[in-house]
Design goal:
flat; single chain; mainly alpha
Amino acid sequence: MEIFSAFVMCLIGGYAISYPAAFFFTWATDQSGRAEGADAVKAYRLTAIGLLVLAGPFLLARQAIAAQTDRAWPESHLTATYALSGLWSVIIGFGVAQLLIG
């Protein structure tokens, strides 16, 4: 039972991290014209990639919900997208828990 509760906490923690990261990723990519100079562009790209890694589960789930509403994807694609989103969320939650707990 302890493993299951740790799994659920990592899943919830990953999605809790993913939602604000998706917001900041969307905001950062909308501000793309503001980076000037080689160093600023490199820092911008690194920030965007880091936010994309953290925002991935939420972005995948949001896209799957939109495709499910429009019936644009087959069921196998939706299932795989939700599974990948959940797995990615657990990995992020586990990584953050390891950083915080030690």
